[in-house]
Amino acid sequence: MSSTSNPSTHHTSTIGAIGAPSRRNTELALLVFAVVIPVFAYANVGLAIDGSVPSGLLSYGLGLGLLAGVAHLVVRKFAPYADPLLLPLATLLNGLGLVCIWRLDQSKLLQSLPNFFTAAPRQLLYTALGIALFAVVLIFLKDHRVLQRYTYISMFTALILLVLPLVPGLGANIYGAKIWINIPGLGSLQPGEFAKIALAVFFAGYLMVKRDALALASRRFMGLYLPRGRDLGPILVVWVISILILVFETDLGTSLLFFGMFVIMLYVATERTSWIVFGLLMSAAGAVGVGSVEPHVHQRVEAWLNPLHEWKLSRQGVYGHSEQSMEALWAFGSGGTLGSGWGQGHSDLIKFAANSDFILATFGEELGLAGIMAILIVYALIVERGVRTALAARDPFGKLLAVGLSGAFALQVFVVSGGVMGLIPLTGMTMPFMAYGGSSVLANWALIGILIRISDTARRPAPAPVSNPDAEMTQVVRP
Amino acid sequence: MSELTLTVMRLGFLAVLWLFVIVAVQVIRSDLFGTRVTQRGARREAARPQQAAARQAPAQPPQQRDRQGGGGRQRRNAPTKLVVTEGTLTGTTVALQGQTITLGRAHDSTIVLDDDYASSRHARIYPDQGGQWIVEDLGSTNGTYLDRSRLTTPTPIPLGAPIRIGKTVIELRK
């Protein structure tokens, strides 16, 4: 269509260049904002519970501010063109998590429990370690494509990390789910959190090489591209492994995360909707099959379908039942639209795991629907920046890795919040950045570090063209 | 603590939290575009005759182009803008401020060409050390033409000389 045939499409716009903004000052401003909000919340908790500003306000505020400042300086030095939003968003979530854990530490009810300990100082320590790991990733990972060399090493690392909790003597069965390992002298660790990063690296490296075979060799049937039988191999293997995790570790969350991440990356690598259909069918079949056979998973499903009955059984002292699911739902309900305000809810009635798996219930009660929505949007923005990074990345490995990491992050947020809110059966995973737990905080800061590295590479302006001496020699004679 | 203070703090905290979300979304919005596009709505009337002239340009090219091609000799009259004179983007201008201008179908090009004859990274226009603007074909399938000749090496652009990529014609103007 030539321009003369359709004059209405003529543009009257001017395209002006914006000289490659690094957006570091935007990041700093947002970061200050992201530190001020938790400090405000902290003062609010103190005023509501004791009627005075808490004495630790200055030290917690300075601690969080210092950590955020260090992270910002590392980004400024080692990843100057990185995305300006990832760091402030993660800092805000981490800060709010710290405040919420501290708030639950103040609860008289929880203090009276036999296994109570003040979790907030430990969580601040884990945050410091997490930021340190974030800095290490940015300093030593100069180019994310280096990870491509470790495709199969990552696979073995991930498999070992996933299998570790099953090793006798090392693994620990904590309340039915075998996703922990005990390290003598150091405490317990959730290796699944680190496995998700290693798996993303492996899937990205593997799919980058194999995607053409998986995408092109297919038959068309009823609007769907059906892959050849032999190309179903990889997805079947991953499916079987995720089912094995479900059976042996009895953890629905890790299994869903593992399989879901593979399906997302397969879809992005091949652009074939049929993989999504296959993935959903296979995970549904697997979950239903295992859910009706394996007793622990079956009980989780029953508790999800009839939370009130489960609560009654638990109250009657029947072994192996838990009243938490129902109490989390009550916490959300009593929060209403605007919440009860920091420090004025009763989510401590959940007792066990109130500050880890069920931390979202405290937010739901004290900040209400309005607060939960804001928090979920902050999570969504992190995922959005990850996908945006994938779109901007120039190399296929970086694209797939960014999609895989942000997809895993999104799945984890969905699995945990869906479990606490009663949308899907409850699992033993933690809310990234917010929940109490060292492994989760460390792994997620490393994940954000890798995303920032990819976004720095993607947004870095192309180098100025070097004048070619050969071209000068054969230049056209000027008039 | 009085009930009123706590209520104010409760609502204040939610307001601050949402303010953060809104600010973050604003940052995303300002981050979406690699180039700044300003609509010249007020001057649209004035622009029309110019477009009409541009549309007639191919009908009587030789004299006009020769006349303007002479400007290439006076290199001190550095061009200040790049103008699209033909194709679907007719009327679009890009200010020349020493930056490299990329042309092609790729989304991150300065000028994104919606043209089956253009490659995704078709050509680029950049200043050399002396400030002379150079056009270079980036290995495109259908080639880049300066006047009538297909480019094989980076070539200096005379003022007003038409550069043709597929159905799009651009030129540098003062």
From TrEMBL, chain A:
<feature type="transmembrane region" description="Helical">
    <location>
        <begin position="194"/>
        <end position="209"/>
    </location>
</feature>
<feature type="transmembrane region" description="Helical">
    <location>
        <begin position="55"/>
        <end position="74"/>
    </location>
</feature>
<feature type="transmembrane region" description="Helical">
    <location>
        <begin position="403"/>
        <end position="427"/>
    </location>
</feature>
<dbReference type="Pfam" id="PF01098">
    <property type="entry name" value="FTSW_RODA_SPOVE"/>
</dbReference>
<feature type="transmembrane region" description="Helical">
    <location>
        <begin position="86"/>
        <end position="104"/>
    </location>
</feature>
<keyword id="KW-0133">Cell shape</keyword>
<feature type="transmembrane region" description="Helical">
    <location>
        <begin position="230"/>
        <end position="248"/>
    </location>
</feature>
<feature type="transmembrane region" description="Helical">
    <location>
        <begin position="28"/>
        <end position="49"/>
    </location>
</feature>
<feature type="region of interest" description="Disordered">
    <location>
        <begin position="460"/>
        <end position="479"/>
    </location>
</feature>
<feature type="transmembrane region" description="Helical">
    <location>
        <begin position="124"/>
        <end position="141"/>
    </location>
</feature>
<keyword id="KW-0812">Transmembrane</keyword>
<feature type="transmembrane region" description="Helical">
    <location>
        <begin position="275"/>
        <end position="293"/>
    </location>
</feature>
<feature type="transmembrane region" description="Helical">
    <location>
        <begin position="254"/>
        <end position="270"/>
    </location>
</feature>
<dbReference type="InterPro" id="IPR001182">
    <property type="entry name" value="FtsW/RodA"/>
</dbReference>
<feature type="transmembrane region" description="Helical">
    <location>
        <begin position="358"/>
        <end position="382"/>
    </location>
</feature>
<protein>
    <submittedName>
        <fullName>FtsW/RodA/SpoVE family cell cycle protein</fullName>
    </submittedName>
</protein>
<feature type="transmembrane region" description="Helical">
    <location>
        <begin position="153"/>
        <end position="174"/>
    </location>
</feature>
<keyword id="KW-0472">Membrane</keyword>
<feature type="transmembrane region" description="Helical">
    <location>
        <begin position="433"/>
        <end position="452"/>
    </location>
</feature>
<keyword id="KW-1133">Transmembrane helix</keyword>
From TrEMBL, chain B:
<dbReference type="InterPro" id="IPR000253">
    <property type="entry name" value="FHA_dom"/>
</dbReference>
<feature type="region of interest" description="Disordered">
    <location>
        <begin position="38"/>
        <end position="80"/>
    </location>
</feature>
<dbReference type="InterPro" id="IPR050923">
    <property type="entry name" value="Cell_Proc_Reg/RNA_Proc"/>
</dbReference>
<feature type="domain" description="FHA">
    <location>
        <begin position="101"/>
        <end position="151"/>
    </location>
</feature>
<dbReference type="InterPro" id="IPR008984">
    <property type="entry name" value="SMAD_FHA_dom_sf"/>
</dbReference>
<feature type="compositionally biased region" description="Low complexity">
    <location>
        <begin position="48"/>
        <end position="58"/>
    </location>
</feature>
<protein>
    <submittedName>
        <fullName>Antibiotic biosynthesis regulator FhaB</fullName>
    </submittedName>
</protein>
<dbReference type="Pfam" id="PF00498">
    <property type="entry name" value="FHA"/>
</dbReference>
<keyword id="KW-0597">Phosphoprotein</keyword>
